Amino acid sequence: MAEPKLILEYVFDHERDHPDRVYLVQPYDGGRTVEYTWGQVVDQARRMAAHLRSAGIRDGDHIGLLSKNCAHFFIAELAIWMAGGTTVAIFPTEGPDTVRYVLEHSDAKLLFVGKLDDWPRQAPGVPEGMPRIALPLAPDTPFDRWDDIVARTKPIQGRVQRRPDDLAMIIYTSGSTGTPKGAMHAFRGVSVSAASIVASERYTPEDRLISYLPLAHVFERAFIESASFVSGSKVFFAETLDSFVQDVRRARPTLFISVPRLWVKFQHGVQHKMPQKKLDLLLKIPILNNIVRRKILDGLGLDQARLAGSGSAPIPHEVIEWYRRLGLNLMEGYAMTEDFAYSHVSRVNAHAPGYVGIPYPGVEVKISQDGEVLIKSPGQMVGYYKQPELTAESFDADGFFRTGDLGERNAQGLLKLTGRAKELFKTAKGKYVAPAPIENLLGESPLIEMSMVSGVGQPAAYALVLLSEEIRPTLGDPGVRERIERELGELLERVNAQVADYEQLKMLVVTSSPPTVENGLLTPTMKVKRAKVEASVADRLARWYAAKGPVVWD
């Protein structure tokens, strides 16, 4: 069988065929932007690759990349590949302990330091003596700077060849269930997956993307960076969290991906300005329907998005339907770090409430006797770095990856996830509770931004909830607080009516301390670190369960 076209070959084709076409658009302070053409991107990558080789980097060496999303993340990755290396990206919000763990565990030989918000805190995590290179948006450091290096270095020539089995990247998981694991991805799997995503979603060079989800995470790496390497689509970057909406509106993306929490936050922001009842009424008036839709999507910067995607965690189906009513073609997908985000996606003609979609072309799926979802994907990892025993345990005898997710398939091949095996817990009633479906029910309410269902060994389960960002500042008003408490009680009744008796929640606990990436209770992709949250509230459980009423204010 012929070997696939590898991802660097697509990049060299773009350099040859349209060197003057703008590829990357990087914002800087003050609202200005700098555009990089394909010719400039590949020229800088060639020069940095030549420098890396002269600095002693050899085929197969691992090189760290610690940076927020920026144009030079993409260019640095290309340089690493051209130099014969393997990229090890680190989430830009990680603390020094995790930075050190990833760099040491991966055997990284060098570190690129890029755009960061908290470098002084992270710097002690870099092993002493490790060479470092500062990208153009890096904090002030004494390291050799990217621009100086490329200015003095001649580019390597020709079309650098990598073998299909060479490692392109090691992607460390975000650590929601413990120590990060390094999933090894070869050029074959990365290239086939990226090309298949581009073909399936019909990316073109005229498409506009915006890169803002962490590039150390497989979702962004596959659907934005790698897909753009293949398709030639134009990529914009977000400057800061405060400027995000303006950045999106500048880009006017035609394809846009996000995670459930952000989709919910965008929805709540709209509902805060236009109550849902008013919106429902306006959408029923033919003469106003399209005007209202366009105005809302224009405000989000998504008026030109022909396709939008949600991944990384479950999203309530009602949220998807809310966006579709506005005319946004929002589809949910399901995949993992271990299959390079190439697994399942919903379609206009293949979706149903509670289902995450159908397999991408070339993906095989089966359900084990225990109800576990097993996947065999063209994007499947080579294995976990330095963990052969865990690698062996992670695949069945037929080479299917054990996802750890529980699920079922319907006659049309749509996959429904019913829980995660490691998240199941028993209350004192002795039966297992799957938190994710209950959390999805809670997430349908505009009151709730985030929830976590727990209650190990307790008389009944409970849900720790974070109220929406628009509601939280108003709780000082006794009248508002009383109304919210009443509405939460009604929400609890509705949710309990939809689940088995042993899954019913005793109470909703309203937290006043939101979980964040900074306090260690969220992963960089905004998933709750359940064990850490449970440990942080352990000393308050007795008080919560002793409280009367369906709502407890923590």
Automatic annotation (TrEMBL):
The keyword ATP-binding applies. Pfam families: AMP-binding, AMP-binding_C_3. GO terms for molecular function: ATP binding; long-chain fatty acid-CoA ligase activity. Keywords: ATP-binding, Nucleotide-binding. One of its GO terms (cellular component) is membrane. Residues 15-385 form the AMP-dependent synthetase/ligase domain. This is Long-subunit acyl-CoA synthetase (AMP-forming). It comes from Quisquiliibacterium transsilvanicum. The lineage of its organism: Bacteria, Pseudomonadati, Pseudomonadota, Betaproteobacteria, Burkholderiales.
